Amino acid sequence: MNGFSAILRREVTGLFLTPLAWVLLVAAVSLNGFLCVAALMGNGGDVDGTFNFLLGSSGAYWMLMITLPPLLTMRSISEELKGGQLEFLLTAPVTDGAVVLGKHLAVVLFLAVLWSVVPMYGLVLEIQGVSPDWGQLGLGYLGAVLVSALFAALGMVASAMSSTPLLAAFLGFIFNITILLLPMGAGALGGTIGGLVKALANKLNVLLHLQTSFMRGALDSADIIFFVAWTGLFLFAATRIVEGRRMWS
User: Whole-model pTM?
Assistant: First the structure.
């Protein structure tokens, strides 16, 4: 536990001191602010519809989701592997799982801070006398954090697979967009392979689980389990890759 805490503190501190992370944070917050004003003006002041737009129903939301986590995780393992620091880290009294989990959780905390700007917009509107549906807004924020955790876990897999940060970012982007679009493309395939792909797509339909629960303001424990389980599976895969590198180092 001490090793995990040390890695988490180190990674959180490193993220909030990295120029790239702050550039991404400022860009995402600015984009969300612009979209919030544009959505309010475009839908006649529908506050709840605006927050649904910011937290799941807009193309900008999904572009941020598939892009930001790989950019934040690309250096997590690959850069240390490239610089030879990973071997030193893996010989320390800390498990491989703690290394992966600590690095992943640091990215998730950073993304949670990034998405927290949306509830802040709700607070501003509340002060102005327009009260949003706080239950729906809170669940929308929770959904954004869970989706971020899932895509960041895929980014950790990509970072563990490559010793080049840019390649890790590219692989993470491909993994994220594949999972997001897999349910859409599965219906076009036929035969046995098409049936298997469709079954897998139904098990990994991120958009469906977000829309049917979090965006509607109706919490379903099955949807939380969905995100936690798949995130855990991908983190386990990343841990196994790191363990493999330990064996061959």
Answer: 0.89
77 pLDDT band, cuts 50/70/90, is confident
- The reported pLDDT for the residue numbered 58 is 87
What one-character-per-residue DSSP string does 106-139 give? HHHHHHHHHHTHHHHHHHHHHHTT----HHHHHH
Q: Give the rounded distance of the alpha carbon of 70 from its chain centre.
A: 9
- Rounded to an integer, what distance in angstroms lies between the CA atom of residue 235 and that of residue 241? 10
Domain that holds residue 173: 2-248
Query: Please, are residues 142 and 218 in contact by the beta-carbon 8 Å criterion?
Result: no
Work out how many domains the chain is built from and give that number: 1
Outline where 43-164 has alpha helix (H).
47-52, 59-73, 78-83, 85-90, 96-115, 117-127, 134-161
Enclosing H/E stretch for 243: helix 221-248
Distance CA 48, CA 61 (A): 16
Using the structure block, give the residue that is written with the tokens 């969905």.
226
Count of Cβ atoms closer than 10 Å to residue 170 Cβ: 15
- Taking only the tens place, the pLDDT of each residue in 43-76 is 887 888 889 999 988 888 999 999 999 999 998 8
Six token digits for residue 176: 């994220």
Instruction: Return all residues near 160 (Cβ < 8 A) that are at least 6 apart.
Output: 77, 78, 100, 238, 241, 242, 245
